[in-house]
Design goal:
- The structure is a single chain.
- By secondary structure, the chain is an alpha/beta fold.
- The chain has a domain of 206 residues: 3-Layer(aba) Sandwich (Rossmann fold).
- Helix content is 38%, strand content 15%.
- The longest helix is centred in the middle third of the chain and has 15 residues.
- The N and C termini lie far apart (64 Å).
- The protein binds pyridoxal-5'-phosphate (PLP) and zinc ion.
Amino acid sequence: MTQIKSLRCRECKKEYPPIFKYICDECFGPLDVNYDFPSVNKNTFANREHTYWRYFELLPIAEKSNIVSIGAGMTPLLKAEKLGKILGLNNLYIKNDSVNPTFSFKDRPAGVAVSKAKEFGFNAVGCASTGNLASATAAHAAKGGFPCYVFAPSDIEHAKIVQALAYGANFIAVDGTYDDTNRIAAQIGDSKGIGIVNINMRSYYVEGSKTLAFEVAEQLDWNVPDHLVVPVGSGAMLNAICKGFEELESISLVNNVSSMHMIAAQPHGCAPIVDAFKKKETDIIPVEQPNTIAKSLAIGDPGDGRYVLKRLQQYNGWAEESTDKEILDAILLLAKTEGIFTEPAGGVSVAVLQKMIEQGKIDKNDTTICYVTGNGLKATEVLMEVLEKPQIMQADAAKISAMVR
Ligand SMILES: Cc1ncc(COP(=O)(O)O)c(C=O)c1O
Ligand SMILES: [Zn+2]
């Protein structure tokens, strides 16, 4: 079966056969997967496996036998009653993608790209990563039997390096920014014939993140939310979420997609898209040296930045940033109200959500989705600096008992 019709240039709309290709020959624009979807309805998906592969007909893999799955997706959409009450929202939901198998949403794009690499017959895969994609790619590579080359800045969180190494990846720690790393990965991927999931496999990679739209729509009983708060690094995920909702509308699974509001959330120390949005620019000025505790969002020159700006315009959206202090406070607020422990990227979402409410952008009854995309256990360093460390006590019940109310 093949539901893929073509690859289509996002800029000039030129179409290509669905081969291994990611840039338009005419205008160097990015290529997107364009489908001829088979007939599906809500019942098609109802009793399927609890992973994002339940949407197989809407994903760019021709043969099911090429799927490399570690069981990612179909993560909880939790009604955040307590957090909502504090913030003044009656219909706030957390899409908790921090509980994926490698503990971030990156299992979605990495899984689709590694499956496509298998379909194309690649011998090795890799990625340029700010941390989470490293382990997502490495885990899928391990499952699919591929050697994996991970390129990442050397200063990312310790746990993210350990995790990728544990899955058996070759870890190339680059003394530089993510943009330096990305450039090197691109050159090596092309010269050595490696499927670099977020560079030369990008057209297929981004398709995985669409499932963040499919699942939310299905979990809302095939309704479209009013507001979606999305943490943004390269911008690929925000753009893919929009594409996902549009595709669902094209096959009549949802309607009213144009009523959604997209909200892009970035950390103050690396907010090139927010800066451009606020200045009403259409081009992004890269941040040379990102400086933020939200290392997974530290992408100074966001590949899909221009397209995020277009999406914000298309969906009457906003872009806002949060400082390191606001991020830490938001991580603790989410943990203490909803029992969800996120890494700084999720703190950025919650902090920006708060600002949107304060600014009157979200009405109290609007259905609002806050995407929490990475797990707190991956980035404990920053929190240990602000939390009070437990006092070490003698193993004496009487003394300890005095401390307990
Ligand atoms: C946890 C987390 N959230 C959000 C993002 C941003 O995704 P994108 O680069 O697609 O904008 C990343 C990127 O690495 C991430 O690791
Ligand atoms: Zn083109």
